[in-house]
Amino acid sequence: MRDTASGPRVLLKRLRELMQEPLEPQERLDRIVRDIASNMVAEVCSLYVLRADSVLELYATEGLNPNAVHLAQLRLGQGLVGTIAASARPLNLSNAQEHPAFAYLPETGEEIYNSFLGVPVLRAGRTLGVLVVQNKTMRHYRDDEVEALETTAMVIAEMIATGDLARLTRPGLELDLRRPVSFTGLSFNEGVGLGHVVLHEPRIVVTNLFNEDSEEEVRRLQASLGSLRLSIDDMLERREVAFEGEHREVLEAYRMFANDSGWVRRLEEAIRNGLTAEAAVEKVQSDMRARMLHMTDPYLRERMSDFDDLANRLLRQLMGRGPEDVAASLPKDAIIVARSMGAAELLDYPRDKLRGVVLEDGAATSHVVIVARAMGIPVAGQMKGAVSMAENGDAIIVDGEEGIIHLRPQPDLEAAYAEKVRFRARRQEVYRELRKKPSMTKDGVQVDLLMNAGLAVDLPQLAEAGAAGIGLFRTELQFMVASTFPRAEAQERLYRDVLDAARGKPVTFRTIDIGGDKVLPYFKGAIQEENPALGWRAIRLTLDRPGLLRTQIRALLKASGGRELKLMLPMVTELGEISQAREIIDREVRHLSRFAHHLPTSLKLGAMLEVPSLLFQLDELMKAVDFVSVGSNDLFQFVMAVDRGNTQLSDRFDTLSTPFLRVLKQIADAGARNHTPVTLCGELAGKPISAMALIGLGYRSISMSPASIGPVKAMLTELPLDELQAFFDDNLMAPAHGLPMRALLQAFADDRSIPL
Predict the structure, then answer these.
(1) Per the database record, which ranges form the GAF domain (predicted)?
(2) What is the mean pLDDT of residues 659-674?
């Protein structure tokens, strides 16, 4: 019986020798196509490379007219070659000229050839070119010949990816791999970042493609697969209770792929055809991605990213690489490109090297975005396809103001953005000059501009931003970036550092707000919920698990010794929850008093107003607490019945709509009526136009990200408050004028030259 694998192995051995010889790129390509034709007993072998202008150019041929090299061209989708490039699928034809897509190029002299086998040149699922063999006789190429040609195409893809063929490109033209591309998504945090791509889950570049011992490579593959399966099983077992819902589904998908016999068989076949285990994973991953890209089933298309992540995990297992290797080689202007990432993962990167973050998924209120905002890093999200189109080291621009990214930008675009960055720097200088000026409207009304925080990394920005204090300290972020529950001593140390950094300015600590979308992997008490945002979270959870709350309260009381402590309860739904929490606090005060601990000089208890039920007991609420903070993110979500993490709805409803502004005014009026201080600390406070609206509605204290304080203060100092209040008197309760409230507010600002 003929050993059908011997042909591919011989071909790969010859290619390995060719890759090691010191040849010019064109000579190397010419010899590659000659060897392929010889090995496969083909009369023609041709390589077409995809250019940035979506044209496939003939780069090398054996058998066709050699004068057609770099002259013969096909558009993407044109002819058999263009069809293969567009579909990312091979074509195996015994009579090519009968195929409806056949297109004759007279300069090549290929009209006499009948049988045709073409395969896409793929890298990470992207088509970079097409490799073709042809014969005069009518024949159907065997599966092992298709496999051999696909494997050879992968070697050529690496040549293209490493830039070897760039010298063959005619002036003014670029290969597709280097073409500029832009993505439009959503702005998650303002700012502009220019830098170079760092893939959060980097594609490992496989340099050792050809094996010396197939059986040894199969053994390596099986060992790494075994380790991978064990690690997935371990994650599922350790997180059996807490790691539920969507996160668990991802792990179950990983387990399914890792145990898929078809996937493993294809990996082993690629190894026995002469590839190393790493090269086999890359080849099968790229083939699978190309096929899945063209599937119409949305569920299967979503599983594509699961498969990619799993293949990358397997590659790292095989090559013995960890995330620390990436951090060590980080450029000084890194822009992280990720499908998704956690808040803790972002903090693993050195802050001084970060210039921006690009996410394929996520939402403006996800925790990684909250951390990035605290760090002052521009973030653009919902950039579908960015990960597969980017390579480590690519130049990239993140426009966090417009929600746009530019990958491999043209020089003139890069220059325009560089000027934009310089303009922003000059504007930031203006904001810095405003820091020491009173935070007052044009007609002399004081408005406190506070900042939101949650980590030690935020603290230096208190002075830099000129904030009047910390209006919201999210204590749960310390829990989210830790691998286990932070000990009482660690909590106390953080809270004391926060109060020290505030230097007497007010700080409002929100008690731990976990549950819902804030999953702690190590919390064994979590449950699977159909509607987690409406479920067991925040004060509901901590009242049911009072040990958590008691530990935190004790740490806060001890850290605040000799100073004022402002405590805020999240997700309050009814006043009885405030009474229960007050009992726990009083018990901890009594306990510390017995042991002569230094206690706070005063303790003020407040509630977060984010559940609509409180809107129907506003006066009772104002009397039950010392202060109220409006959580506009969740309040808007619940009032408008819109999931704030659902990107399909993110732009449908306006936070400056008349109904929601009326709700906010009711709250401000109730606070004034009961002499209870009210602060708003959601996303609304951070935009000059919405901050202007809040001030007009009666809010005299708003809390935002540190980077927002400068722009909001610049607006505030030019704001004639009496005119704005008259504007709301005329427009808030009156029938609609045909214009949305946002447009009316913009016109108000434009007429008075108020900077927004």
Answers:
(1) 24-170
(2) 97
In 3-state terms the chain splits into helix, strand, coil percentages (rounded to 5) of 50, 15, 35
C-alpha dist (Å) from residue 488 to 244, 533, 559, 728: 27, 27, 11, 48
Q: What are phi and psi of 202, to 5 degrees?
A: -65, 140
What 8-state DSSP symbol labels residue 612?
Answer: G
* Pairwise CA distance, residues 391 & 209, whole Å: 19
Which run of H or of E encompasses 569?
strand 564-569
Where are the domain boundaries for CATH 3.50.30.10 in the chain?
A: 181-201+339-423
- Alpha carbon distance 170, 70 (integer Å): 8
Give the list of residues 6+ apart from residue 723 with CB closer than 8 angstroms, or none. Answer: 748, 752
**Domain span(s) for CATH 3.30.450.40 in the chain:** 6-162
* CA of residue 494 relative to chain centroid, distance: 28
Token pair belonging to 132: 């073709």
What are residue 421's phi and psi, to 5 degrees? -65, -45
> Each residue of 301-326: pLDDT tens digit?
555 555 666 677 777 778 776 555 55
Cβ atoms of 339 and 302 within 8 Å: the answer is: no
75 beta partners: 55
Section 96-106 average pLDDT: 85
What would the two tokens of residue 579 be?
Answer: 């009474």
**Residue entry with tokens 């540190």:** 706
Calpha distance 157→127 (Å, rounded): 9
SS3 696: helix
3-class SS at 69?
A: coil
pLDDT tens readout for residues 133-191: 999 999 888 888 888 888 888 878 877 777 777 778 777 677 766 778 888 898 888 88
DSSP 430-455: HHHHHTTS--B-TT--B-EEEEEE-S
For residue 52, the SS3 value is coil
Residues 6+ apart with CB under 8 A from 463: none
- Taking the complete model, does pTM exceed 0.70, yes or no? no
Please state which CATH class domain 6-162 belongs to: alpha beta
CA distance 29 to 59: 8
Among candidate residues 323, 403, 328, the one with its CA nearest the CA of residue 358: 403
Six-digit token string for 249:
């589904």
Domain spanning 214-324, CATH class: mainly alpha
Strand partners, 198: 336
CATH of 181-201+339-423, one of 3.30.2290.10, 3.40.50.10490, 3.40.109.40, 3.50.30.10: 3.50.30.10
Report the SS3 class of residue 314: helix
Whole-Å CA distances, 98 to 106, 135, 426? 17, 15, 65
Contact 226, 277 (CB under 8 A): no
* Confidence at residue 281, expressed as pLDDT on a 0 to 100 scale: 84
Burial of 658 (0-12, 13-18, 19+ CB in 10 A): middle
Q: Which tokens go with 434? A: 């405003």
Residue intervals in the chain for CATH 3.20.20.60: 436-752
- pLDDT bin (cut points 50, 70, 90) of residue 395 is very high
Higher pLDDT, 286 or 4: 286
Looking at the chain, the domain(s) classified CATH 1.10.274.10 span: 214-324
224 three-class SS: helix
Domain 436-752 fold = TIM Barrel (3.20.20)
Contact, 223 vs 238, CB < 8 A?
A: no
* Residue 81, both tokens: 């070659």
Given the DSSP bridges, would you call strands 701-704 and 448-453 parallel, antiparallel or unpaired?
parallel
